[in-house]
Structures
1.
Amino acid sequence: MNQFKSIPGTFDVLPRGYTSGSDVIAPVSVWRHVEEAVRRVMVRYGAEEIRTPILEPTELIARGIGQSTDIVSKEMFAFERGSTNYVLRPEVTAPVMRAFLQHNLAQQGGTQRLFYIGPCFRAERPQKGRYRQFHQFGLEIIGSEDARSDAETITCALDVYLELGLREFTVRINSLGDRDSRPKYKQALLDYFLPLSDQLSEVSRNRLDTNPLRILDTKNERERELLKGAPILLDFIDDESRQHYDSVKEHLTEVGVSFVEDPFLVRGLDYYSRTTFEIESAVLGAQSALAGGGRYDMLSSEVGSKKIVPAVGFAAGIERLIMALNAAGKADVDSDCPDAFIVSVDNVAPGWIFSTAKSLRDSGLSICYDLQGRSMKAQMREANRQNARYVVIAGEEDITSGVVQLKDMSDGSQEEVSIELLSKTIGASQS
Ligand code: AMP
């Protein structure tokens, strides 16, 4: 029978990391380092963690994100079981809004700052930096229209990157205006592109019918030339949205965040209104987007709320962030290693080793020993591989006399230590 392999576009995270094709899969310690930094920064922002299910009703995602988006039209892992349609969540904003409404979190008063970390699933063509199961962290600030909350989501994402030692990014921002601005702009785009439709690619021609805004995302050189003469969204937005946008920019400037205004940044999701933004890393190649987000005041009513609940948020890819850390040389994180590895000379006294390991573990130390009856040399090699701080060498006579050899692996020095004092001696060097 064939040996099973993980599905393309998904990967295992191993204790020590590995490379798979062109991908470098970081060790678990790097993932934890990132997750801990996310939590530290989120707490500074007064955000509280929310965990929503991986499975959501397909309809929530379809309505929330929009039928014409790539995610809904071709990237959902959706299936039917009985009379229910399920989807593996492709993003977490719609689920967080669903949870917010379902549990009536508005009742708790004030604005809710909620953050998450977890897996998302999209049936994209797997490539470097683009996976079918990937991980996002994000912040959603729900219940406020205040422009400070838009600026706060941007500074929060940047603070996570700064916390981890990244320095070079580009923040691109734009405003989509309110609910009424987009239809007017869509019409203007249609008026501009329809006479040029024979110069458009098939994909963009189709988008004229489905969602002309998406033409602005084009990477096609010829179409990018055409875009230069296209109408600009900012010329179609309402006065309030324009003031809101100005305030967001002022707040960012007040705290020294530089940004680039990108009149064609509309992003793939349908639910945005007013602010949209993307953060790119200079050290990433083709898949340079670290994070994206924006204001989504219309989402609540799309997913069943009678009241409009204004909200803004960002989502950031963890794989991309780790790629950026690798590229910037900031991914060197100590892996967990045992405080001591107990080496048994000639494999004597297995019971003694078992109970000594247990009592040292009970005192809070991390202890390993060989379980395969290997030679002393092989046991030492294993202790080295695991980066143990100490090796306890125990032979028959040592155990009887109550004194063992303790080898400090940092300098190779060795001393005799009474078994009773082992935990104290190893523990003392921990601090
Ligand atoms: P989006 O929800 O598409 O705005 O994505 C937000 C962020 O998640 C992006 O900026 C990427 O960093 C990351 N991301 C999105 N899709 C993928 C994917 N298929 N594989 C890896 N990271 C992704």
2.
Amino acid sequence: MSRIRIPQPRPSEITPEDVWLSRRRWLGQAAAMGMLAGAGPAALAARGPDDSLPDLKGRPSPSYSLMEKPSAWDDITGYNNFYEFGTDKEDPRRHAGRMVTEPWTVEVGGEVLKPRTFDIDELRRLAPMEERVYRLRCVEAWSMVIPWVGYPLAELLRQVQPTGNARFITFETALQPEVMPGVKRGILDWPYVEALRMDEAMHPLTLLVFGVYGKVLPNQNGAPLRLAVPWKYGFKSAKSIVRIRCVEEQPYSSWMIAAPSEYGFYANVNPDVRHPRWSQATERRIGDSLFAPRVKTRMFNGYGELVAPLYAGMDLARNF
Ligand code: MTE
């Protein structure tokens, strides 16, 4: 498989490590002193991550992190999309606790030389964990800033060695109907399936995520492992993955099957291409006050310098 050349991010997009560390220290101290407390969800930021979850630390990755304050723990873990558990934003936190995440295996196969089933503990040890602050831009025109912990998906793919026929990759997610009230409703063709082109999957920004805010992922965020593909709308970032397949033909994702005129294969964040039912030009930052101005959405969610070359010459309005 050919290696892709990645242009360096603009200096303004990079957090120098000393700034990063001092900001982290400041946030930690501010939280401890209650300085972040205020009105609304910000008050809950001071409460910090859930102590009952095991720690999962990652080495800060300044070159792939935003210099923005992460959203509050309570927003990241309380305002979710995980339709298997229902369509209200509070449903995943309310119901996902019953999902069984131990034992957990991930089958990796298809067009690979070394198909293999990995145990979750094996996957956690496969590569060094990094902490990366990414923007998550949901297709519903809201966003958050999330400090994920994980490592590039490319590390896992190297283990199984995709063949020359592997042009796309699919991610199938957990289906546990007895504990997933949303599955009984025919919103999507379950299990939830997402897919990427192989070069997108191998891109260093594409993160296999095991934790958030220094803790293992809470179930509502896609425990025990999920994707984060920050230049695409959030629905591409499949949660609670159980099967990965490298394939030759472009696959159909669950959302493409459900509403082909609304959700395309690429789903790159693009302020110039409307969703048929609403504009994508601006977004609401979850946690901001109701009076805060909406944020302008940026092409590729602000990651253009890193990912635009993947789409050189493509019509992104047609390939939405
Ligand atoms: N993965 C599964 N299995 N089921 C889902 O409903 N929702 C997607 C994505 N992954 C979804 C999923 C959508 S629409 C978004 S915006 C993100 O997860 C939300 O991730 P978060 O709740 O951790 O912010």
